[in-house]
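During the reporting period, our protein records have gained a structure token line. A sample record is set out beneath this paragraph:
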Amino acid sequence: MTLYLEFEKSLAEIEGKAEELRAMARDNPEMDIEKEAKALDKKAADLLKSLYADLSPWRKCLVARHPERPHCKDYIEALFTEYTPLAGDRNFADDHAVMGGIARLDGKPVMVIGHEKGNDTKSRIERNFGMARPEGYRKAIRLMDLADRFGLPVITIVDTPGAYPGKGAEERGQSEAIARATEKCLSLGVPLISVIIGEGGSGGAVAFATANRVAMLEHAIYSVISPEGCASILWKDADKMREAAEALRLTSKDLAELGVCDTVIPEPKGGAHRDTHAAIKAVGQALTKILADLDGKSAQDLRTDRRQKYLNLGSKGLAA
């Protein structure tokens, strides 16, 4: 059963009516309702196209957070072969909000690391809703070190509302762990590619996405703070999240204009959750192309490329 967003209520009604007609026909085989059902299907398809033709930044946030979007685990299972998970930070614990290991993409060995939110109540609690603790970032650093040592390109899959802000995480050095992970991204002598598949929230995302190339799904978001958090700070009113979403310039289109995002990956009509297979395939194609573009660059060239990208950040948007 499809989970509809708040702006999709009219679409839910039309698709619901079409399903009701087909359910009646299943119970009464003599009924001929296919013509009416097809008319409703067409009306729903037209409405879906219209709704997603020009989504506001806030609506993009809702789509990016849709619980039925494919998550990191889905991408790893579908795109990578011979995936061997590696666990733990060799210091405190294994953070299940971060998963990663050695795998192959199109036969090429890589290190893949990503945030995993979980897809049901039990797994979401286990994965802490994709909010990593310090040990998660230290695990990522360990895997990046391993990749650098053996010359493996690093692919990071970002989908987090932000790093976990709990007391224990702060006591164990959350900010230091995020800073070290960001530093490690910048110092790698192998290609680092990041793809933001849903939410790219705050330093929790930057720690994985300080990459040579940053790709974003069309309806993904990437921002220093959530719209709700921004509204609470600036206006002392979390209900002003729509205005905050506009001001933050957190959409893939805005970030491509600013030079933060290098590749925008189109999503199926209605978002990645409506056709997970097509969305995952599009991400795989984009990763393959970006890897090929970076192949053969020396360690120093990759570091220089990465450094220059972040020194130039925002210049495209300012020049425009």
In short: The chain is about 50% helix and 15% strand. The mean pLDDT is 93. Residues 6-51 form one domain.
